[in-house]
Amino acid sequence: MGAPSADRWQTDTGEIQYRGLWYKPHGYIVILMGDNRRSARYIGTVDNNWNPIHDVSLPSGGTTRSMLRGLKKF
Predict the structure, then answer these.
(1) Cα 74 from Cα 72, distance rounded (Å)
(2) What are the residues facing 32 on neighbouring strands?
(3) Fewer Cβ atoms within 10 Å of its own Cβ: the N or the C terminal residue of the chain?
(4) pLDDT (tens digit, 9 = 90+) per residue, 38-70?
């Protein structure tokens, strides 16, 4: 995938941190989430309109799709 076109955090502080890695030529944003910036892990990918295009299966049997749908643009 190479280097992202942009790299942004949703907020500077908070209990949960979200990071977006924009790949503008490809038309998607990779989303990472963690309880701090060092622990952020991949939870899925959204398109430029923030619609989920890939999610992660959870041990509980669900997926991260609902998290991605509820994530506000940043």
Answers:
(1) 6
(2) 19, 42
(3) N
(4) 999 999 999 999 999 999 999 999 999 999 999
